[in-house]
C-alpha cells in the first residue's frame, strides 16, 4: 500500500484524483492539500466523495511537508508545481505533476507557449512526458512524471500512427472541448450564462498544447495547427484532425497502421468501420473512464484523411493518465484502479 499526497486537491483534476485514489487497491490518501481550505472537510468541496472520505479534511502545505508519503500528485497551477516538486523529490517522494511545468523539454518552447521562464531548470531533464502510449518504458520506476495536456493527448493519439509511419504531411487540428477544461474557477470564458449554448472559438491556429504535439510527434510547427472551440459539454474533448498524406493510401493500409499502433494498448479503442456514423468518435462514449476512442475517414483519392479521437479531459486528459503514470512509476500494473467503464448516457 502506497501513501499518496495530493496537492491542489480542491480543483476539478484534484477531485478526480481523490475519486481514483479512493478506489485504488494499492493507494491510500496521506493528505489532501489546500492552503485556502485547510481544516475544512473534503466533502464540503467534493460532495460526491463525502462517503469515501467521511473524516478527512484538507491540510495546509506546511502540514503536508511534515507528513510522510511515497508519491505526490501535484494538481497545482502552471508555474506553482515545479518548486513543490523539488521539495517532494528531496523528501524521497515520487512526483506526478499535472501542470505544464515539465511537459516541454526545450526551455525556449516553454517560454513561448507559457509566457514564463522555465521553472526549476535543474529538474528539466529528469521528468518523463507522462503519456504511456509513447513513453511506457521510461515511465517504469520514474521519479518525476510530467502532466499531459488534454488537447495535446487527443491530437497526439489521433495522429500518432500516421506520424510514426512518416506519411503525415500536414494537419489542421480542431478540438471541441467542454467547460471543465477551464478549471474550477470562473471567468468570462467559463461563466455559464456566457458560455452555455455558444460555439466559441478559443484559439483558431495555435493553442499552447501545440508545443506538446510537435514535440511528441516530432513534427515542425509549420506542418500543424491546433484550434480549440468551446461547445456545450461539461466533460469531453473531440479532436478532428484534417490531415494531408504524403502519398495516396487505401483504407487497408490505414487500418494496419492504427491497429499496429494501438492493438495492445489497454485504454485505446479503435472505432468500427461500420456503421459509418461511428467512425468518428463521440466523447459521450468515454465519459468517466480512462478510455480514448480513435477513428478515421479517408477521402476519395487517398490523400486526405480525417483522423479523430475522443476522450474525457478530466480522466485520460488529466487525472486518469496521471494515475496510469503513477502505477508505472511505482511498479504496479498499469491499469490498476482504472478499469471503470464509461457512463452512458451522460
Residue fraction in strands = 15-25%
Q: Ranges with pLDDT <50 over ≥5 residues?
A: none
CATH topology grouping of the largest domain: Dihydrodipicolinate Reductase, domain 2
CATH architecture of the largest domain: 2-Layer Sandwich
Total DSSP E strands: 12
Radius of gyration from CA coordinates:
20 Å
Helix percent reads: 25-40%
Query: Could you give the distance between the termini?
Result: 33 Å
Q: How many structurally independent domains? A: 2
Strands of the largest sheet, in order across it? 7-8-6-9-12-11-10
Q: Structural class of the helix and strand makeup? A: alpha/beta
Rough outline: globular
Q: What does the average pLDDT come to?
A: 95
> Order of SSEs, N→C?
EHEHHEHEHHEHEHEHEEHEEEH
Quickly name the level 1 CATH class of the largest domain: Alpha Beta
Q: How many helical elements?
A: 11
Descriptive notes:
With 346 residues, this protein is α/β, with parallel strands linked by helices. The protein has two domains: 126 residues, NAD(P)-binding Rossmann-like Domain (Rossmann fold, 3-Layer(aba) Sandwich), CATH 3.40.50; 164 residues, Dihydrodipicolinate Reductase, domain 2 (2-Layer Sandwich). 29% of the residues lie in helices and 21% in strands. The strands form two sheets. A seven-stranded mixed sheet has the order 7-8-6-9-12-11-10. A hairpin with a 5-residue loop joins strand 11 and strand 12. Helix 1 crosses helix 11 and helix 7 packs across helix 10. The protein is globular. The two termini are 33 Å apart. The mean pLDDT is 95. It is found in: Cytoplasm. Keywords: Amino-acid biosynthesis, Arginine biosynthesis, Cytoplasm, NADP, Oxidoreductase. GO terms for molecular function: N-acetyl-gamma-glutamyl-phosphate reductase activity; NAD binding; NADP+ binding. One of its GO terms (cellular component) is cytoplasm. InterPro entries: AGPR, AGPR_dimerisation_dom, AGPR_type-1, NAD(P)-bd_dom_sf, Semialdehyde_DH_NAD-bd.
